[in-house]
Amino acid sequence: MTNRRNGATGALCAACLLFSAGALRPVPASGQVLLTQDEALRLAFPGFVEVERRTAFLGEVERARVADLAGSKASGALVTYYVGRTPDGPVGVAYFDVHRVRTLPEVLMVVVTPTGRIDRIEILRFAEPREYMAPAGWLELFEDHGLVGDLANKNTVAWITGATLTSRAVTDAVRRVLAVHEILDPLGDGTQ
Question: How far is the C-alpha of 109 from the C-alpha of 94, rounded, in Å?
């Protein structure tokens, strides 16, 4: 797994160890919390990164644009996101997406790089039976993909055999987050 944390070389190894240790953790029974929001943010922005919580309101026009870009239903009007910064500048933006897989909810943290590409995805909660949960290796397939081109046809990342609804729910969530990220331009630099 390639880690693309801008300028955070000292924290990279720690982040890799945290991620690896998390991958070895036993999977809890369905419906249990896998990570708290604070734990997920520590994985996304390890060590010396300052994390700033922000909130934005999307009007009808912005929500329609998000739905159009994502190719799925619009996001909510209220968007809370977290910007990670070092003294050298931003390292990424974390979004939390709550959605239904089949009949029960899943909560994902999707971290987007300053260039508008996926840095990492973490599952915080998965209420469906655990055999339908996306494996960590599959989630890594999204890394370094952006909204335009890469995930435009939704065929870039293969479906999980036996868990098609999970595959679709995660892919839709990632596309929705990338679309929100593009509309918000949370780093204010217009590079998305």
Answer: 6
